[in-house]
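Support case: user asked for a sample of complex input and structure output to validate their parser. Sending the pair below.
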Amino acid sequence: MSVHESSSDRLEQIHQQTLFVDMHAHPGGIHYPDVSRIGADELARYRRGLIDVIVCNVVGDATYTYVKPDGTFGWGNYRPKPGAVFAFDLDRISAILRTIDDDEVVLADSPAAVRAAKRKGKLALMPALEGADGLEGRIDNLHKLYHRGLRLLQLVHMRANEVGHIQTHPYSPGGLTSFGREVVRECNKLRIIIDLAHCNTETIMDTLDLSAHPVICSHTGVRSLCGPPLESEQRMQMRYDRFLTDEEIRAIAAKGGVIGIIPSGWMPNLSDLMRHFDHVRHLVGIDHLGLGSDRVGTGTESRPEPANWHTAEFGLEGNFRAISDGLLTRGYSAEEVGKVMGGNFFRVWEQVAEAH
Ligand SMILES: [Zn+2]
């Protein structure tokens, strides 16, 4: 490397050779009921961050928490009617697909499609479900979602569902249910990536035992870097319970999987965030690191989103360059930065999608 080469040039070079992936996001607030497609401004922000693939998450349990029975937005505690959970999730996937009608954006339905898109400078969107609640306990619903483009399934979100159990308050003990076991096997057959974010330890370990393929945990952090939860955090979904133990990190890595670090408000600056990358790299190696932003975009006029990347370093823009730059400054090699920014995720996807 020449001494005159800027970090921005180095990043562009890494980006030429590697697909950059946001392993977990809700771009443009697509998980809300009244958003018809992901806005062009939001997609442009991702392009400026050099991202090639956005894993676009529909929230599987939305109809239990923030979508009223009449289909409009409003926080509550709902009991959706049979069929309503699946219908909402399908509707949100349609909103992702509507974005894909745009010429500049393609559906990330296979690794080959994404590679071809990158050659043409296009962004690829991967429909994903955060919480398998939308299956409503029916495996044929998984097939229907797959045929609509679903390529990644996070098993649980904020409630223990028909598939497995959650790590956050109110903690629910137990691992994969028998339907959950069927879902894992069927995801393997359909070549859907399995995501363990929000799963409790038993559900994580059951899935690792059963899955024929590597799995990911898309947006998390390192629990051993956090002290015990503050009193104010104990009954909330805070950093302590959302992050992985070292034992869980080792188990996911041993299976060949990837752990996506979340640049959230729990890590108020870049050096806090870097400690999480460093810890995973030290514990299990560079091949098991990724990035899952959990970005929701800047929202709509009627419902502006508070930025979940609210520090100066990350900002509303969703500054992926600050992170890749931070890794380079920290001494990660170009090859290592490429792996973190998407190379590792892509390796897992190829293993899942092209397994015999
Ligand atoms: Zn989440």
